Amino acid sequence: MTNQNVLVPESMEIAVAAVANPAPMFPYLPPHGGGASAGGVRGGFGIRRKCLPQLDLAENGGSGRINVWIETMEASSPKHKSAATLGVSASITGPHEHSTWMLSHPSALSMFDEITKALIGKQVVMFLDYDGTLSPIVDDPDRAFMSDAMRDAVRDVARYFPTAIVSGRCRNKVYSFVRLAELYYAGSHGMDIKVPAKGPSLKKPNGKAVLFQPASKFLPMIDKVYRTLLEATKSTPGAKVENNKFCVSVHFRCVDEKRWRALADRVKSVLKEYPKLRLTPGRKVLEIRPIIKWDKGRAMEFLLKSLGFADCKDVLPVYIGDDLTDEDAFKVLRNRGQGFGILVSKIPKETSASYSLQEPSEVMDFLQRLVEWKRLTLKSCTMV
Ligand SMILES: O=P(O)(O)OC[C@H]1O[C@H](O[C@H]2O[C@H](CO)[C@@H](O)[C@H](O)[C@H]2O)[C@H](O)[C@@H](O)[C@@H]1O
């Protein structure tokens, strides 16, 4: 099981808070590292790492984590979403806590001027998660399409800044949704990276795109566990198993909540036979992937390196994502003190991101404003 801090997947904050939070919900430490720095916009700003209590979710060999995940999904489901059921104050996710959280994770739209000031003279590189960031969350993962307007916004951004899509999805699948050949794609949580032929470095002499697949030896194992999971979950109405090439997703979104525990138990029992694979919770999904030291943060670093920005002081990576797996990239940026993360979320979550946006439509606004800002900047340069 991953050692990363717990990020609250989809309304998990209610149950997390319910466990142990006698103190104010979102206490803050003063910003650490000071405000805008060389390559970082609020990069050093720190909401205290414990803005939500940390739980030892690795108890019982990881099953504790899954239990908490289920409890929090239950707590946020319409049937159970009442303070009485939770035994906690209804104000836990109330307006006060939300506005307090927004002080340390302000909207990237309202802070747009501060952000763009820090971009001046920097080489911006954009990293975009897909589900929940570029496309709204929907019941059917096969129909998580992005709008044409969003595609235009991403295309425009990529005209000015190198842009990568970093997704838990199989790379081909996410490409079939995004359909922009000029982007970089990292599928399977960064375990399947394709650097386009036009990329400045890592380009093969023959001009062909380069693939980087650090988990390739796990392919037969992933294929086998996918088939086993298909079999193990076929009697659960609504369950869906998605083969993401180097990882597998088991979807709970369309499963009746009464069956969530049994389904999770089935998945866990399959995983017992695969000590080299791990289970991580996401947005109504359990993800199965190889235990290797690779994640979206490392994929982002790999891409920066492949673009020739490994030790570049003037590069400013911006990563936008909504899920637990995106935290690995937010943390890398925070540790580098370079660039910043933007969490897409309507609710307060523990995060290493510096800014927030509420939903994909705000992501689109942000991307469009960035393009407009860049155009104006370039125009004013040519007029001087
Ligand atoms: O890294 P991402 O691009 O965010 O991918 C993470 C998972 O996203 C997808 O599942 C999520 O979106 C679905 C469509 O909106 C939704 O039905 C599901 O409940 C969400 O968990 C994708 O299907 C998974 O394979 C990815 O791992």
Walk me through this protein's architecture.
The protein is an alpha/beta fold. 35% of the residues lie in helices and 15% in strands. The protein is built from 12 helices and 12 strands. The strands form 2 sheets. Strands 5-4-3-2-1-10-11-12 form an 8-stranded mixed sheet, sandwiched between helices. Strands 6-7-9-8 form a 4-stranded antiparallel sheet. Helix 11 links the parallel strand 10 and strand 11. Helix 1 crosses helix 2 (63-76) and helix 6 (148-160) runs parallel beside helix 12. The longest helix has 24 residues, at 360-383. The radius of gyration is 21 Å and the shape is globular. Ligand L263DTV3 binds next to strand 7 and strand 9.
Find the structural class using helix and strand composition.
Answer: alpha/beta
- End-to-end separation in angstroms reads 56 Å
Compute the number of structural domains. Answer: 3
**Adjacency order of strands in the biggest sheet:** 5-4-3-2-1-10-11-12
Low-confidence stretches: 1-39, 43-61, 82-92
The top-level CATH class of the largest domain is Alpha Beta
Named at the architecture level, the CATH assignment of the largest domain is: 3-Layer(aba) Sandwich
Mass-distribution shape = globular
How would you characterize the largest beta sheet? Answer: 8 strands, mixed
> What helical percentage do the residues reach?
25-40%
Describe this protein with a few key phrases.
384 residues, alpha/beta, Rossmann fold, Alpha-Beta Plaits, eight-stranded mixed beta sheet, four-stranded antiparallel beta sheet, globular, disordered N terminus, binds the ligand O=P(O)(O)OC[C@H]1O[C@H](O[C@H]2O[C@H](CO)[C@@H](O)[C@H](O)[C@H]2O)[C@H](O)[C@@H](O)[C@@H]1O
